[in-house]
Amino acid sequence: MNNAVLIQQIYPNTPGVKMLELTRMHHQAYCDKFAMDYWCEISNPLPSYDVMLGSWGKIELIRRALDTQYQSVVWLDADTLIVDLQTNLRDAIQPDKIGACWHRIPQLNHWNVGALYIDNTPNTRAFIDEWLASYPPKPQWLEQGEFNRLARESRTVVTISDKWNATLDVSMVPDAVVLGFHGQSNTEYRYNLMQKTMDQLFPTQKAAPREVREVVQV
């Protein structure tokens, strides 16, 4: 087992599945290069939780990774793409902290949970446990809102450079490591943007065939 893991997950039979299929082989190659494990799941880790109340499966998978004793845990939403293949995602990890990018949008200034960079310590594990225990959430902002509420009440979450979640029309930077497509219209539109970006930056990369999708059981 490597000392770091990249986690991505999407619920089965949802429009977002093909986004993971688009990037899975690309992200697997990245993880192989930097000696990181890759958990790429098309699954529902918490079947008793209402999927309409947010993406709580990601929190459960993060918790499992921390329990597995990875020192560094990175979560990336399905609508993200690693674009800098020379930079190690471990570089975003802050000691004893959960790193997230601060998004400034009219609806709400907030830490965006589409990309999280976690150092495995008792302090960060306690935060993740509390985040998971905050289900069911308030109707607005769902697990995103609960994360920000808890972050404001603690010193566990720190703001990291926008390059770790450079989001279109929100926080683009010239030195992006991870490109985020969050909030770009509907899933189909985001997928098309991601595919176009992949074709431009990595023309030899192909989407993972549906029949070879891997669901990691942890």
Which key phrases capture this entry?
disordered C terminus, 9 strands, 5 helices, Spore Coat Polysaccharide Biosynthesis Protein SpsA, Chain A, alpha/beta, globular, 218 residues, three-stranded mixed sheet
By secondary-structure content and strand pairing, the structural class works out as alpha/beta
User: What oligomerization state is this entry in?
Assistant: single chain
Tally of distinct domains: 1
Q: Regarding CATH, which class?
A: Alpha Beta
The percent of residues in helical segments reads: 25-40%
- The number of E-state strands comes to 9
Q: H/E order of the elements?
A: EHEHEEEEHHEEEH
| Uncertain stretches of 5 or more adjacent residues | 211-218
Give a structural overview:
The protein is an alpha/beta fold and 218 residues long. The protein has one domain (4-212): Spore Coat Polysaccharide Biosynthesis Protein SpsA, Chain A (Alpha-Beta Complex). The chain contains five helices and nine strands; from the N terminus they run βαβαββββααβββα. A six-stranded mixed β-sheet has the order 2-1-3-6-5-7, with helices on both faces. It has a three-stranded mixed β-sheet with strand order 4-9-8. The longest helix has 17 residues, at 17-33. The radius of gyration is 16 Å and the shape is globular.
